[in-house]
Amino acid sequence: MNRLKILAVLLLATLTVNAQQKKYVMVIHGGAGTILKKNMTAEKEAAYIAALTKALQEGYKQIQAGKSSLDAVEATIHVMEDSPLFNAGKGAVFTHDGRNELDAAIMNGKTLQAGAIAGVTTIKNPISAARAVMEKSEHVMMVGDGADKFAKEVGLEIVDPKYFWTPERWNGLQKALKEDSAKAVLDHGNKKSMLLGTKNHDYKFGTVGCVALDKAGNLSAGTSTGGMTNKKYGRVGDAPIIGAGTYCNNETAGISCTGWGEYYIRNVVAKTISDLMEYKGLSVAEAAKIVQDKVAKMGGDGGLIALDRKGNVTMPFNTEGMYRGCITADGKVEVYIYK
Ligand code: ASP
Fold this sequence. Notes:
The radius of gyration is 20 Å and the shape is globular. Helices cover 39% and strands 22% of the residues. The strands form two sheets. An eight-stranded mixed sheet has the order 4-3-2-6-5-1-11-12. It has a four-stranded antiparallel sheet with strand order 7-8-9-10. The protein has helices at 3-20, 42-64, 69-81, 126-136, 144-153, 167-186, 194-198, 261-266, 269-280, 284-298; strands at residues 24-33, 102-108, 114-120, 141-143, 208-213, 219-225, 246-248, 253-259, 302-308, 313-314, 321-328, 333-338. Mean pLDDT is 91; it is low at 187-198. It has one domain (25-338): (Glycosyl)asparaginase (Glutamine Phosphoribosylpyrophosphate, subunit 1, domain 1, 4-Layer Sandwich). It is of the alpha+beta class. It contains ten helices and twelve strands. Strand 5 and strand 6 form a beta hairpin. The protein binds aspartic acid. Aspartic acid is lined by residues 31, 87, 204-205, 207, 225, 227-228, 237-239, 245, 258-259, 261.
């Protein structure tokens, strides 16, 4: 082979590799769980694909307009919070006593500033309240009535708690309660923890999360949820806990988790992924896989999304499905549901 031919082959090989290394600017999830194609109608599947696509496009618009990754995360999560399809905002699941208690967190990867709210009942878009805690208070986390009050004071949209009532989620609670009492009878009245005893973790999926990378090279991550169906009053999951369900650092990655929150808290999942990257030099995909596998090994289920500042995305999960998607720097949308 003459030199010219070798050069041409090398050039082609490099171009192919580069073409494969897509740069992503956003990744989202809409919850993980027993999502099986056989249980899905064509209409429902289309509705999820449309909602995920719209969410990605709204965030992408912000990035294209030169706005910050925080703006992109907030805009994207608003779309999902306003849709009854997801367990966040409008479509939040019910607690054991029939209320909707919402959690959310957001983190700025450039400054490591973070904001979170938990157990709120009147804030239409909890992700904006989390952002307000980060930007308009000296705190990181506010809970319950105080957080609701703060959101009102800073001018966020407040709704009657009835706004969060949807038939799907109400029926989900009734089903969980029925299973719960059946289980209690089987256990001869030895009623275990509301969540662990019923293994009702399939009633929870639909939490939403987003990680975005803006034109200035800054990452942000956010998560918003109604938690788990039939959760005990006052229970808080991983989503609003910085380092557990949500974390972001420009030096490593932005991460948002979904699944059985107790396991994600106990494994400090999001921060551990960041630490493996920072201290061990692992790639985002390697780090995320190790920690997600650990959750699975302990008996937890769920998944996560992560995006590093070079635009590498990973979306591991150990459930049958996870609503998820990402968008490339040049605006190509990818949306997935099943394994
Ligand atoms: N992780 C959430 C929680 O435990 C629920 C979910 O992601 O589905 O509150």
